[in-house]
């Protein structure tokens, strides 16, 4: 299997899903306590200082269909974004968008309980959406950027408002963050900007790793 950021992200999500199953069986995905142990975002805990949950919750899913649909979307859009923007910017936008979506959720619904990578995935969609409004976006990419993505965006946002189990604020926040990057930054960037994205990429890898280490410490103290 090719070593890509997409495959690593999918692998990380699947690994946590398997660990949850080993830890609590099928009931683990409906058990708030187990979801919290593995990093779910719970508004009151975040407000108390466990900001790491804004990151760790992106890698936790609440059932087989939840992770199946999210990983399918990540596989499709992730591979497109990675080929177009490269691994550094891709991973950076993914993590930042997911965090922005979770922050928006925290601000609007302080008592929220949320898991899933969909906010970060919407960030990838937003990145491509925003790229369609730049004059320097290559013509060959127009079919997968800009208004070409509107049907997917509108349908998913609409569905998000029809179900209480869908965190639409994470979707909207992630989409907005991704759009901002796609609209303001070019696809073809200079060597200096490439280096900046590389630094951000490795910094965020460290932040994600540190977040899960901190989560383990919180779990040991709390549970």
Automatic annotation (TrEMBL):
Pfam families: Rhomboid (PF01694). One of its GO terms (cellular component) is membrane. The keyword Membrane applies. Residues 49-185 form the Peptidase S54 rhomboid domain. InterPro entries: Peptidase_S54_rhomboid_dom, Rhomboid-like_sf, Rhomboid_protease_S54. SUPFAM superfamilies: Rhomboid-like. GO terms for molecular function: serine-type endopeptidase activity. Keywords: Hydrolase, Membrane, Protease, Transmembrane, Transmembrane helix. It is found in: Membrane. Its main location: membrane. The chain crosses the membrane at residues 7-30, 50-78, 90-109, 115-133, 145-163, 169-187, 199-221. GO terms for biological process: proteolysis. The keyword Hydrolase applies. It comes from the Bacteria. It is a multi-pass membrane protein. Belongs to the peptidase S54 family. This is Rhomboid family intramembrane serine protease.
């Amino acid at each position: 299997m090719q070593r890509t950021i997409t495959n690593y992200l999918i692998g990380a999500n699947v690994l946590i899903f398997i660990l949850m199953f080993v830890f609590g069986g099928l009931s683990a995905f409906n058990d708030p306590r187990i979801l919290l142990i593995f990093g779910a975002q719970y508004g009151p805990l975040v407000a108390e200082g466990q900001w790491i949950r804004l990151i760790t919750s992106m890698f936790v899913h609440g059932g087989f269909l939840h992770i199946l649909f999210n990983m399918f979307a990540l596989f499709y859009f992730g591979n497109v974004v990675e080929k177009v923007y490269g691994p550094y910017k891709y991973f950076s936008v993914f993590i930042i968008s997911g965090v922005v979506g979770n922050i928006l959720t925290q601000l609007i619904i302080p008592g929220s309980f949320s898991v899933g990578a969909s906010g970060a995935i919407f960030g990838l969609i937003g990145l491509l959406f925003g790229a369609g409004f730049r004059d320097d976006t290559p013509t060959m990419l127009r079919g997968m950027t800009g208004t070409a993505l509107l049907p997917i965006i509108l349908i998913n946002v609409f569905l998000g408002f029809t179900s209480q189990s869908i965190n639409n604020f994470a979707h909207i926040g992630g989409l907005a963050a991704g759009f901002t990057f796609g609209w303001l930054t070019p696809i073809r960037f200079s060597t200096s900007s490439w280096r900046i994205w590389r630094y951000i990429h490795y910094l965020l890898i460290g932040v994600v790793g540190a977040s899960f280490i901190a989560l383990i410490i919180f779990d040991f103290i709390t549970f």
